[in-house]
Every structure is written in structure tokens, then in C-alpha cells.
Amino acid sequence: MLHVGPYDDVPQSFKVMNEFIKDNNLEKMSLQHREIYLSDFRKVEPPKLKTVLRYKVKPIE
Question: Which of 7, 27, 34, 39 could bridge 54 with an S-S bond, Cβ 3.0-4.6 Å?
Fold first, then answer.
């Protein structure tokens, strides 16, 4: 998921991701996640920061 906004708002994006996982009969393969920072927080205003959030998922069997 692409999160746009301050890092403090990332938990809201995780909530959206968890709903997507539930609604699509998926399950997380691990509790670990990845964050890929596309913006430099030193140069970009917080509302415009872009971060890719990732979970490994698999279909529920």
C-alpha cells in the first residue's frame, strides 16, 4: 500500500491493509512488515511524504 502523509498516520494505513486482508480471505505470513521510504523527510513536507507498506500474505486454506 502507498501511504501518503506523516509517519504518525501509518497505523491508519495498516488498519486499511488489515481490512483488505480480511475481506479478501488472505492471512499474513508473518507479523513483520516492510516500509520503503520514497520521500526524504528532510526535503518533503509531512503531508506529502510517500511510504510503501508491505506484508507478505497468502490465501487462507
Answer: 34
pLDDT value at position 61? 81
Q: What is the pTM of this model?
A: 0.88
pLDDT tens track for 14-34: 999 999 999 999 999 999 999
User: In whole angstroms, what separates CA 29 from the centre of its chain?
Assistant: 15
**Burial tier of 14 (Cβ tally within 10 Å: 0-12, 13-18, 19+):** middle
C-alpha cell at 13: 494505513
Q: How far apart are the two ends of the chain, measured CA to CA in Å?
A: 24
* 12: helix, strand or coil: helix
